[in-house]
Amino acid sequence: MPAREGGMSAINALVQRSSVHMMTDGLSYIDGVPFEVDVHKALELVPWRAALAATGPAKLGEFFAAEVVERFRSFDHLIAEGEVVLGQLFRAYADEYREGDAVSTLVLIGWLDGEDRPAAFAIEMATDGEKLKWVEQHSTTDSEVIRFKLAELAEIAMPPVSLAMLQAARYTFKDYEAMDPETELLHLLEIQRRIPFDDRYYVGGQALLTSIDRSGVHQRIVHKWDEDEPGKVIIPQPIEWAEWLSKRALKAAGIDLSGLSRLQRERMLKKVRKGTLR
Fold this sequence. Notes:
By secondary structure, this protein is an alpha+beta fold. The protein has helices at 60-71, 75-81, 83-97, 130-137, 163-168, 181-193, 241-252, 262-274; strands at residues 5-6, 11-15, 20-24, 28-30, 33-36, 43-44, 50-54, 103-112, 117-126, 151-152, 155-158, 206-213, 216-224.
């Protein structure tokens, strides 16, 4: 990894019929050691109903957020005509601040006014240099990456998660409308948190959920990893996935276990696992 601030954020997104959701982690680090654990990486594009987040250099997302609202009239305009400009902005940033060597995935979510619907887009960008070699060496999938192409996607997981990782974590694929965005995107984030790169871990701090619908942009922190501290390497704790999923299902259903006895909690979790909770 580079010796400067960075750089390998987790960004997950999900598009539903009447809303779009993005979850980002909160770490910023130097040489694989966090110096911040509560960074808000999802940036609202005021005055649009839109937001963006970027992997790569720590300040790249802020750079994009400032530039696109100056250069485009609306989120629709950005999506329709912004592909080339986004690539130019990335190269300019890399030349000015990263000695021409950078890699990033930019994720854009928002409400398309012309079509009256939510949408999510991603664009992969890279210069030819050491950063790209490192990313390709540590890729978690064999999928071909097309650079500088703005693509609309229904679901985004960055860094990508392999099928084996999903299966090991009991991640199940559902109809998008049946998904609870907080649970599904956090589940992905917990998996990504446990992907080692050069024997270090780079996802954590906090999970920020950004949701966009007709009414606007809504953000809230849905989880904090209290064990993550500035100056200390990330050490993910073991997860028993069945129990984790049961607890998330109870939370999504609005059921609070804090006032129950241990026996009552165990019975409730057992009902969730059996699918008999009413």
